[in-house]
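As the next step, I selected for study a record pairing a protein sequence with its backbone structure tokens, which the following lines show:
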Amino acid sequence: MPTFRRALALLLLATGCSHTSFERASEADTVQAYQDFLREHPDDPEALTAQGRIEGLEFDEAKRLHSVLAYKRFLEMYPDAPQRQRAQSLLEGLRFNAAKETDSEAGWRQFLAEHPDGTHRDEARARLQTAQERDVQTTTDLKRVSLLLQGEAAGARREELERKLDDESFAQASDAGKLFAYLRDFPAGTHREEVRVKLLELEVEGLLVSGLVDEAEEKVKTHPLGPKLTGFPARLARARAEQGALSRTEPAARAMQAGHYLRDLEDLKRALVAPDPLDRWQAAEELGQHVSVRAVDPLLEALRTARNPLIRQNALASLRSVLSALPAPVAAYEIAVRLESLRERASSPELYISVAALLDLSGQLEQAASQYQRVYESGGTDPLVLWRWVQLREQRHQAFSSAVAARQLAVWAQTTAREETVSAEGGVPLASARQLCAAVVDARFAAQAIARVRKEKTEFPEDLDTFERTAQDAVRLAEAKLADAELLLRQQHPGVRTCADQQVAERLSQGVKERTQALQQASSAKLPKPVGTLLLELARERDPSPEVRAAAASRLAGSTPP
């Protein structure tokens, strides 16, 4: 800038000062030149002039770049510069234009946070409100609508947000758990009747797929909301056809059905309260093969109240089998309706374990883990909780934590074996022998789990050595005590069944083999084609055995059904 340089030269001549260094800086008239001058002559009378010129040059560069970053850099480096207000105004303008381009609630909120007193404040606030109103109409984010509601005073907008939250919560209620949540969260919701219809539909479907066709028909006929199940007549006709196929007496038709190889469900429910715990744990095992909603409560009751761990472990495994074979929406309903019942009255370890198991079976593992912990902390050592912890932690690849739980289970087995009295005097109670059987099974389970962990790299390998010795000691002691107890039992009661009895497991396994074979030979069975096809479809959809379901699916996909 020649004018500025001439003015500086005249000023220097007029004052009679040479200031050669400053002259060189002014001749160059660059930021670097003035910075060099200030570094060499920080106390020179021209220092303020040089500093002012640096700020002017930097502001010129920021204007040339005209970017948010350039103006921010200038304001951060020179917060007291005379150009500060102009730079802030230009920065605000850039940000306002950027917010206009995106025109989103987040963008306008950010702009107002950065320029709460800017010249565009009022327009930004108006645009923010417009963006909020527009977004509320289109958003499906329930958390966001709830957040907006919290800050909204009574009025038309609040009512609009409440309607939005109600409608969207109903629209997103894709399973029974969310339907029940809607009823809890919206006591005056506009969709309550629709939700109850959906829940009734799920309940009725559970009865139909369980073969309880007459009960389902009566339920719909007598329920006030029954007429609203508009698809029920067609579904009932399908269920009647399924019932007819399942009631066929031909050997080929019977051989395809799981029920042909099982005791009656009512017989099994009675066996669950038999005097011998072995009868009870075998009944719990077999009950898991009945794909029926009527099997759920007896198994939950056994899980909740049984003393012998094998009954409870088999009950949990059978619940998983039943619920896995039921249609997913029905299984979700059966779990949700029981969780809803337990939600307010769960106040003891027995009820906590029911909640934990239901959450576990629904796949809500984090919540289930919390409830299992609650059971563990509210009473004595529960081998069922430890047994499940071993499995869950192993599934999550928490190897050492799995081993810790296995070690605790081994200690329980060891303590149980030590405390059970085995003596010829007075005889050995049957329950004590069965409890020793559970100790042996769980000690072996714990030892095997620890052995698997030892094959992996863990934090404290020396601790695993101790855990393994504990588990092995538990196995030896429990096996020895069980052998003594069962010897005395056989002497006193010839023919009594022992812990090694696997008759039920073997029968169930044989049933799977025979059903698989029957399905594979379905084309040669002398059955009407529609009946054969329907039996194959039912096996694919509802057989308790994954192996049988896979065989039926393959048979249906691989060739023309019989």
Remarks:
- DSSP finds 29 helices and no strands in the chain.
